[in-house]
Description:
The protein has a single domain (26-84), classed as first zn-finger domain of poly(adp-ribose) polymerase-1. The chain contains two helices and three strands. It has helices at residues 7-17, 66-78; strands at 27-32, 50-55, 61-65. Strands 1-2-3 form a three-stranded antiparallel sheet. Strand 2 (50-55) and strand 3 (61-65) form a beta hairpin. Helix 1 (7-17) crosses helix 2. The N and C termini lie far apart (30 Å). The mean pLDDT is 90.
Amino acid sequence: MPFPPGLADAIRTKLDVGALPTALPEKMYAGYGRGHPCVACGEPIRAAQVEYEMDYGGDHIFRLHLGCAGLWEAECRLRGYRRD
């Protein structure tokens, strides 16, 4: 999946306003998409695409495309965020 223009900026903004978590999850799963929207880009994660599911416990689950998850994690690490 090529990165759409502005995706990195969108992820930074979502981190700034709290729409994306700032701590790396204790549990992260990978599998094929099931049509859920990616919390980073908003596009559905299709069956032929890798989906990362970040589990923060309870109902706090975030689903991202493989590439979106990589950009999110890189931005978290650049900001010095760590696991809680």
